[in-house]
Amino acid sequence: MTPYTVLVLLVVAERFAELAVARRNGAWSRARGAREHGAGHYPVMVALHTAFLLGCLVEPWAADRPFLPLLGWPALALTLAAQGLRWWCIGTLGRRWHTRVLIVPDLPLVAAGPYRYLRHPNYLAVVVEGAALPLVHSAWVTALGFTLLNAALLTVRIRCENAALAPSLTLSSSAAVAAYSAPASRPGPAS
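Request: output the structure for the sequence above.
Response:
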């Protein structure tokens, strides 16, 4: 196995760890009356992320992609940074972190950790990893394909999450949706 294959398999193992955390947190949230939003796009997300990881493994081998140090090393650094950001998000949200959009009623939005600076820092980690991981071994088709498809999926996902979280804001309902859906120009409440 090449070091790149080991890296991708480590990311696969990390995904399984995420799913275990999400399963545990989902049970905690549902026991507290959480309601799921956007369940229809979840299977698409799972399929896209699975195809992404398979593409990361297959493309370098099938297309005989080389490791290019000037591309590969910075891409590796970005991949590792994305993992760090993802786990910072998971740690900050604690039991409220899920792979699904599960909202426990009457809990305030989290505004600590990376959520002090960005509304959706976990999705930034996904975007960076989606571009960087395949480029560690020059898998540019996978990087480009995932980036484009993920952009479309994140448009749906973020709209869903913003709408689901809007009642958690202390503003009136319509003002909350407008304020939370507006582009972030300064740090504020986060999902």
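Residues 12 and 53 are 7 Å apart (CA to CA).
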